[in-house]
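Lecture 7 notes: from sequence to structure.
We start with the chain below.
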Amino acid sequence: MAKLNNTELQAALDSLPGWTLENGKFHREYAFVDFVHAFGFMATSAIAIEALEHHPEWSNVWNKVVVDLTTHDAGGITSKDVLLANKLEAIAQKLLG
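Predicted structure tokens for the same chain:
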């Protein structure tokens, strides 16, 4: 899997509101209503994550979930990260909205 070039990275970020590039990784911080919604996001996302066999670096403190995406085998961000970011965003929006 090839790393995205700068143009591809910017196009991906433009299509993913709330996502940024931080320390060479796609980065997103979600703030849910409470812990139950934050944990629900992580639990629901786990199914999609496992199906893709592409696991995020993430953490949870109360209502906040911090996500970082990179493809370690490729040494950077790839289309797998974009796909996962889109899936995570779709799940999160159902819980945030």
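Points to note: The chain has one domain: 19-96. The mean pLDDT is 96.
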